[in-house]
User: What shape does this take?
Amino acid sequence: MSEKVLMKGNEAMAESAMRAGCRFFFGYPITPQTEVAAYMAKMMPKVGGTYLQAESEVAAINMVYGASAAGARVMTSSSSPGISLKSEGISYMAGADLPGVIINVQRGGPGLGSIQPSQADYWQATKATGHGDFHIVVYAPSTVQEMADYAFKAFDTADKYRVPVMIMADGMLGQMMEPVVLPEARALEDLPEKPWATNGHGHKRPHNVANSLYLTAEDLEDLVRERYERYDAIIEGEQEAESYLTDDADIVLTAFGGAARVARSAVNAARERGIKAGLVRPITLWPFPTDAIEAVLPQAKAFLDVEMNMGQMLEDVRLAVAGRAPVEFFGRTGGVIPNPDEVLAAIVALNEKVGE
Amino acid sequence: MADNEKDLKVVFERPHALLPVVTNFCPGCPHGIVERLVAETMDELDIEGETIGVAPVGCSVISYDFFGCDMIEAAHGRAPAVATAVKRVHPDGVVFAYQGDGDLASIGMAETVHAATRGENITVIFINNAIYGMTGGQMAPTSLPNQVTQTSPYGRDVATAGNPIRVSELLNALDGPAYIERVCVDTPKNVRKAKKAIKKAFQNQLDGVGYSFIEVVSTCPTNWGMTPQDAFAWMRENMLPYYPLGVVRDVTADGFANAAEAAAARNAACPIAHPELKTEGGN
Amino acid sequence: MAKELSCVVAGFGGQGSLFAGKVIATAGLIEDREVSWMPSYGPEMRGGTANCSVTLSDAPIGSPLVTRPNALIALNQPSFDKFIDAVVPGGIVVVDTAMVPQITEPEGVRVIGIPATKICEEAGTPGLGNIVLIGKLWAETGFCTEEALDGALAKVAGKKPEKLEQNRQAIKLGVNA
Assistant: This one.
């Protein structure tokens, strides 16, 4: 096993991606994710990999599209405004069934917004990372260790289902250092075969085409339906969540990523006051872990969704709860990190309300 | 009969790198000629097996079904970015982008300029027919002054719509490109010239000479509302004075082995670009 | 086990506040504790104040952003002014009096001033005021073992042997100040 090291979240994701066999990185500078690009610029040449600073986010994601079509494990990284620009290429990747990893180290929005930590891109990531009928898998790590683990896993998930995969971090997770044990490097020769890749047919097979254009409506419908069967398999097999102190919880908090760290502190503080609080922390934002919500529903009296936005995952929590318990919300936005005390106050208030 | 058959010689056939399919091009459209020249080049250089082509959005969007090599369909304007990445993944492969004027010089101008300035060792074929063909004849970045299109119904007003872009000359301002030539395919003689240029643009890639760009001044009989013959006549009369044919840059003809050497010569007076030179300032 | 340390290290950019935070965090790493280090980032880093939050704990750490520190290392006046009222009762503040002329002491908070910048200058190792203050904080709180602190210096500042030795001296200057 690798030794435990102190690393920034951004750097841990970059190193872990390389250990997963990523040898191509195309990016563009933006705060607060720039350490990912800087790390790649420093390390890729040492392993014969490619770091290329693209002329724009748009170009970067289309380079990801090209490298993926060519059969490579490839990644790009950005922060919220840059992800909006990448939405074009993400849609094309989905439409051409191309795997690839996109990191979003979120900052406040809309517009240029702030550069402070935020989770305001939940809807974008889970509902509409681009135009058209498609999903991408979205992982939301909440520690530097998980950033390393899921940056590694993202490549396997992407290749397995031939879908783009996003790591949703935020400025807090990206900038902070924590101890981390990095995954063992994958040997490049052990990476999955990609018989569909456009890498030159050598007159040994019919030509491969990477494409998302289908001029006959029925053809496109068939293809999208096939893709949705894969999405069903992902919903079935890839949901991930952590449940913390939920076995006897009256008040179940739901929170992901950076906000979940604060929510966990608030749950601990509530327990010290004798309030039976717990936390369901979605790790996959898509597929949303409805199974984990279902599991706590029998004893949960109420839910409190905590996010660093105005209430986005809240809608998915309400869909999963389906009216069987009240779901309330506490959030800070604009780049403000919630304070455990104010989350605790919201727990106390909700506990009093449902206790009546 | 059998003896006669023996005497028959194949003098003209479909290139292997062009698939036996019916194209979607309008009658009289030069796309078919240019795509054939690209396919002939692949055959003659025996590179179909290691070539990856990138198709644009525009009339040649479905080229991925016409070329026999592996093909990638890019988003509108992004072919140079896609081609860049493919070449980085497969540096020993042959990578070309085939793009029209709206794709290459309007929505994809940033990708075009930056792939060129990086000196990506790829081949770009640029079809300039001064109009958006696939969407039905709108003004393009290369539409001529006073040219009537669906979106310049009173003629391109340069006071409001600006002047057309001479892309070959624009790219010639950069240090990245190795070879830029403007050709057309209106006569058998010009077709042969175009073929020579396209073949050189691919040969350059094989030889590591660098980014090679062929602009084909072309026509759009359908959207121009002309017969193919009249369209070529209009092209010769109006387009060629604006977009003169000929070699715009050829670093090998200038005596350089590749684009990098030519670029180094151009910036010879810049010390930081030449670490081998001792400088007075710094150390 | 030592109690939880929720520390803010703050100063001008260039005073080494982020570096000092890394030394503390690395000591926690060596002791296999839960550790987080979170810098301020963005435009405020350009010529303004640079600060970081460091937490050493035996339980998983919630927010890495320390809003109620029980330890503050203040390297200049604006940083002292910005964070002094956030320190919890029972907390400790270690401050460079050579850089912070106006010191207040909120009730229940222990403020210890030493002229760190001057001390290391006089010792012939200028620029290590941040490390001197770590030495003082360590002497007052024992936030980690001596071995862990020394190991952290070696990890973070150990690239050049003479530099490491200077850092070790700076710790001692702080301990004895």
